[in-house]
Write a structure and sequence with these properties.
The relative contact order is 0.22. This protein has a single domain, classed as 2-Layer Sandwich (Nonspecific Lipid-transfer Protein, Chain A), CATH 3.30.1050.10. A five-stranded mixed beta sheet has the order 3-2-1-4-5. It has four helices and five strands, in the order αββββααβα. By secondary structure, the protein is an alpha+beta fold.
């Protein structure tokens, strides 16, 4: 699933959603990707130990629902631990940067 999502990112990217370089780490069960986004583009790194602005861990199924089905997590997703994120307010902007 993650490889398909990464391959779709280029055609979906929307410029100027971010005004400064912002780095996200997504930990989806046994897969970790680091995505750095700025106003002009993005870069994907598999794995990685970069310092990030937003570190998010969830199941691959929840991430799939967010990316492909338009699911928007609510407070209960975070309070229950289904999604663990140090900066959840950045997540909607990340989605907008990729037309979601």
């Amino acid at each position: 699933m993650i490889e398909t999502m990464i391959s779709e990112m280029e055609s979906a990217f929307c410029k100027d959603v971010f005004s400064k370089k912002t780095t996200f780490r997504f930990r989806l069960e046994d897969t970790t990707i680091v995505i750095t986004v700025d106003g002009d583009g993005y870069q994907v790194e598999r794995g990685g130990t970069a310092v990030v602005d937003c570190d998010c861990a969830t199941s691959a199924e929840i991430f799939r629902k967010i990316w492909y089905e338009g699911y928007r997590p609510g407070i209960t997703d975070f309070l229950s631990g289904a999604i663990v994120c140090n900066n959840p307010l950045l997540l909607p902007q990340f989605l907008r940067a990729f037309g979601r």
